[in-house]
Specification:
This protein has one domain. Helices cover 62% and strands 17% of the residues. The protein contains three helices and two strands, in the order ββααα. Strands 1-2 form a two-stranded antiparallel sheet. The chain is rod-shaped and about 75 Å long.
Length: 107
Amino acid sequence: MPLIKGEIALAGDKTTIKIKMRPATFVLVFMSFWLGTVALVCLTILVMGVLRWKQILHSGFSPMLLIPYGMLLFGSLLSYFAFKTESKKSKAFISLLLEAESTLSNK
């Protein structure tokens, strides 16, 4: 469930509610730590690959070295789509609760 903050203002004869959503603090801290660690591993693999490219060409490339890159991609996409899904649900719930109409496209 995203954290929701907003402002209520009068706009002519209507009331405008501007909301901002973000992931929960624990989720941000955990995903930053996890993705940051995996990104460091990916960077290390990349640097070692550049420094030892002749050795890699001679002995062969291990596909196991691609696992951290898959983890980084998976974690990023999981965070993005999980938040988008939950924010859409929250926005729909708030609109239903307040009998509101949306003036912005889904972002």
